[in-house]
């Protein structure tokens, strides 16, 4: 399956050049952590992720066509 | 004593008399400073049932053992009083430079009592403390007040904590502004100043506090200044644009955390237009910091047209970008920045201000308020001009502003016709810019904390969803396991309780939330400053003590467990966006709140602290203040 990973903010450093997103190919049953590992984001690092507006966590399975946003944790302010 | 001055200033405004309390070392170790002092003096000295805007209320401006030290995040004050907005316990923390100056004049706190028969301000220097006439300052903005005091005292770099029209006119969510742009925002403390005819505190001190172990203080300062970026809970943009940077707001909007249209949509189409990053790109002039802080997270901005904004009044932080921007449906960045400046000039809490105007907008769009009610203002979501016009009316309490100056809870009572459905408040305090449908554990704290919906009082769930450096920080406070943001189980309650009580301790030290001091480092700082062998156990107990005293203050005022509740809106989702999947499960939230009571040592059903718990916390004296006998 193919999904799109869309880092926002500082995590964009994991993409090449000025890209804002990257499409990756994964085997069925892959998780958010598996997807992020492909672009070098450690599953134990600080990040939040969402698909379709819902927060998702590292062990959640991804599906073909998903648009996976990944960003720094939303803290206070 | 070391680390603290050992003196608390008591200012009787009615008699214009100044005295000094000198509590013993046991008192300092038990209550420490800041929020600890506020919780003690409010319960001990403010009579039950008084009008918060009467002379019987007291205003406490308290520092802590870290105050006055040249350390990042150390220049903080906690201000407290009975709240005119909630009728209960109010406290709010603020930075800038004023707290350092007050500490250097030789005092740990100021207690204002009574009411002056004409406007006054308090002048504090190492030459003494004076109550000065402020008749000529009444009616001036915070900035003009500061400039006039600077000119007439001739004291270079004097610092002021002042109110503008909002405080003078006793807008129920008026705040206290330190140094033109830093707000002790929540709960209406500026209205209490106004009710006492107290326009400002002006301070300039020269005496550095004596500490037990200056080498240790220097070592800890160096460690933080060299390493805050590595251990920071925030990304490096804090020093570049402050809170509300692009990715925080865009991602927050994507998952529904950022309120829009009075928390009715949370799917704001033009978030990029109002982020801190855009603010700095378009209108930024630089970054400033509080005294001795290397992070420098405060924006300065300048606009000539269409709204004139003076850079001395600071730029909007995330809360203001959200409350005055997306919550009101406004994506006109210049207008949001102007609204933020007006909030500072008039001393209005930008959170309550924005949420109250958004409440008015929703009433207007539902025809509960009409053009006749608003005096011709088209008070629709997204109308930037209406936003500015309404702020002016609120500060002056004119027209529709007189109703909206009451805050959402009381304004809804005045307006009637079901307006309470649009009042986004807990206990009367308007919700901050973190939606509890996303950060559901924070929703427990919003519900049960004494001051009402306060985003600084709990764990932001999204920052603790997995192991790593961020969770390591929480673990030091007593959090045990990372959890999903919408988890409301027992482990989440335990995490929230740990961070809540830690934050109340931190509000007594007083340390800034934006400087990533670890719990263990704060213990070291207290010990190095005071010479005590201060322990983590004492710190944790202090946090519990403050929460419990605040709880009792509220119970005494009739604010009981039935008021520990979020507005109904949060138990439903939104039509579009990240919250379209639904809202909070009310049964789960109720259970979590009652589990929190149990973990706090309060009665699981009524939330009334037990005598056993009071004894454990060393505050058995507070049992006398409980409305009914405890088991």
Topology:
The complex is a heterodimer of chains A (77) and B (631).
Chain A: E1 2-7, E2 22-25, H1 32-37, E3 48-51, E4 54-56, E5 67-71
Chain B: E1 8-12, E2 17-21, H1 25-31, H2 34-45, E3 59-62, E4 77-82, E5 89-94, H3 98-104, E6 109-113, E7 120-125, E8 128-133, H4 142-153, E9 159-162, H5 165-168, E10 176-178, E11 182-184, H6 189-195, E12 198-204, H7 214-231, H8 246-255, H9 276-283, E13 284-288, E14 298-301, H10 318-325, H11 333-346, H12 350-365, H13 371-374, H14 384-396, H15 400-404, H16 407-415, E15 425-426, E16 429-430, H17 440-448, H18 469-477, H19 490-509, H20 519-530, H21 536-556, H22 586-600, H23 611-616
Parallel strand pairs in B: 1-6, 7-12
Antiparallel strand pairs in B: 1-2, 3-4, 3-6, 4-5, 7-8, 9-10, 9-12, 10-11, 13-14, 15-16
Helix pairs in contact in B: 2-19, 2-21, 7-20, 10-11, 10-12, 11-14, 17-19, 17-22, 19-21, 19-22
How would you sum up this structure, described in words?
The complex is a heterodimer of chains A (77) and B (631). Chain A is 8% helix and 29% strand. Chain A is built from one helix and five strands. Chain A has one helix spanning 32-37; strands spanning 2-7, 22-25, 48-51, 54-56, 67-71. In chain A, a hairpin with a 2-residue loop joins strand 3 and strand 4 (54-56). Chain B is globular, with a radius of gyration of 22 Å. The model of chain B has no long low-confidence stretch (mean pLDDT 96). With 631 residues, chain B is α+β, with helices and mostly antiparallel strands. Chain B has helices spanning 25-31, 34-45, 98-104, 142-153, 165-168, 189-195, 214-231, 246-255, 276-283, 318-325, 333-346, 350-365, 371-374, 384-396, 400-404, 407-415, 440-448, 469-477, 490-509, 519-530, 536-556, 586-600, 611-616; strands at 8-12, 17-21, 59-62, 77-82, 89-94, 109-113, 120-125, 128-133, 159-162, 176-178, 182-184, 198-204, 284-288, 298-301, 425-426, 429-430. In chain B, a hairpin with a 2-residue loop joins strand 7 (120-125) and strand 8 (128-133). Chain B has three domains: 8-204, 4-Layer Sandwich (Aldehyde Ferredoxin Oxidoreductase,  A, domain 1), CATH 3.60.9; 238-430, Aldehyde Ferredoxin Oxidoreductase Protein, subunit A, domain 2; 440-625, Aldehyde Ferredoxin Oxidoreductase Protein, subunit A, domain 3 (Orthogonal Bundle). In chain B, the strands form four sheets. Chain B has a six-stranded mixed sheet. Chain B has a six-stranded mixed sheet with strand order 8-7-12-9-10-11. Chain B has a two-stranded antiparallel sheet with strand order 13-14. Classes of the chains: A mainly beta (77), B alpha+beta (631). The interface between A and B is medium-sized, with 23 and 44 residues.
């Amino acid at each position: 399956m193919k999904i799109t990973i869309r880092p926002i903010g500082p995590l964009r450093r994991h993409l090449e050049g000025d890209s804002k997103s990257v499409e990756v190919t994964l085997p069925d049953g892959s998780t958010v952590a598996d997807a992020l590992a492909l672009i070098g984001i450690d599953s134990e690092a600080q990040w939040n992720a969402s698909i379709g507006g819902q927060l998702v966590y590292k062990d959640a399975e991804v599906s073909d066509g998903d648009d996976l946003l990944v960003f720094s944790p939303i803290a206070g302010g | 004593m070391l680390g603290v001055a050992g003196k608390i200033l008591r200012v009787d405004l009615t008699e214009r008399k100044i005295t000094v309390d000198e509590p013993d070392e046991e008192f300092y170790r038990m209550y420490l400073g800041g929020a600890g002092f506020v919780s003690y003096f409010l319960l001990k000295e403010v009579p039950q049932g008084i009008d918060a805007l009467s002379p019987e209320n007291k205003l406490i401006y308290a520092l802590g053992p870290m105050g006055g030290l040249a350390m990042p995040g150390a220049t903080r004050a906690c201000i407290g009083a009975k709240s005119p907005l909630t009728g209960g316990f109010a406290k709010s923390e603020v930075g800038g430079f004023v707290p350092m100056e007050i500490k250097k004049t030789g005092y740990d706190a100021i207690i204002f009592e009574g009411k002056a028969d004409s406007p006054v301000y308090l002048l504090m220097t190492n030459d003494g403390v004076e109550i000065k006439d402020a008749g000529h300052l009444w009616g001036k903005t915070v900035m003009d007040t500061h400039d006039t005091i600077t000119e007439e005292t001739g004291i270079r770099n004097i610092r002021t904590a002042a109110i503008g029209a909002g405080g003078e006119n006793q807008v129920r969510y008026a705040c206290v502004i330190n140094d033109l742009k830093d707000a002790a925002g929540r709960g209406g403390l500026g209205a209490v100043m106004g009710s006492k005819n107290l326009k400002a505190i002006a301070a300039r001190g020269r005496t550095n506090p004596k500490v037990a172990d200056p080498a240790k203080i220097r070592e800890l300062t160096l460690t933080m200044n060299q390493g805050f970026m590595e251990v920071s809970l925030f990304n490096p943009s804090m020093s570049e644009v402050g809170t509300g940077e692009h990715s925080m707001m865009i991602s927050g909007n994507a998952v529904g955390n950022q309120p829009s249209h009075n928390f009715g949509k949370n799917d704001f189409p033009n978030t990029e237009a109002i982020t801190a990053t855009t603010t700095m790109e378009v209108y930024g002039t630089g970054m400033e910091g509080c005294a001795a802080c290397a992070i420098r997270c405060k924006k300065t901005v300048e606009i000539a047209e269409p709204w004139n904004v003076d850079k001395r009044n600071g730029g909007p932080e995330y809360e203001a970008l959200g409350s005055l921007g997306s919550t009101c449906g406004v994506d006109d960045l210049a207008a949001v920045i102007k609204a933020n400046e007006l909030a500072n000039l008039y001393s209005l809490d930008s959170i309550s201000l924005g949420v109250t105007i958004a409440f008015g907008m929703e009433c207007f769009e539902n025809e509960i308020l009409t053009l006749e009610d608003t005096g011709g203002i088209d008070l629709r979501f997204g109308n930037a001009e209406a936003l500015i016009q309404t702020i002016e009316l609120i500060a002056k309490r004119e027209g529709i502003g007189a109703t909206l100056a009451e805050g959402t809870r009381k304004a809804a009572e005045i307006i009637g016709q079901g307006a309470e459905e649009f009042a986004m408040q807990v206990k009367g305090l308007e919700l901050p810019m973190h939606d509890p449908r996303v950060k559901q554990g924070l929703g427990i704290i919003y519900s049960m904390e004494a001051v009402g919906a306060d985003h600084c009082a709990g764990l932001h769930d999204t920052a603790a969803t997995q192991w790593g450096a961020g969770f390591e920080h929480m673990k030091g406070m007593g959090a045990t396991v990372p959890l999903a943001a919408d988890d409301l189980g027992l482990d989440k309650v335990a995490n929230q309780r740990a961070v809540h009580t830690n934050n109340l301790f931190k509000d007594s030290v007083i340390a800034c939330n934006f400087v990533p001091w670890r719990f263990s480092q704060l213990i070291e700082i207290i010990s190095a400053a005071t010479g005590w062998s201060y322990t983590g156990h004492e710190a944790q107990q202090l946090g519990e003590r403050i929460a419990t005293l605040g709880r009792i203050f509220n119970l005494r005022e009739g604010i009981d467990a039935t008021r520990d509740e979020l507005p109904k809106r949060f138990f439903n989702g939104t039509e579009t966006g990240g919250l379209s999947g639904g809202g909070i499960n009310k049964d789960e939230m109720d259970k979590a709140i009652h589990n929190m009571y149990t973990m706090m040592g309060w009665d699981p059903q009524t939330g009334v602290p037990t005598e056993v718990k009071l004894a454990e916390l060393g505050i058995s004296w507070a049992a006398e203040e409980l409305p009914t006998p405890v088991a």
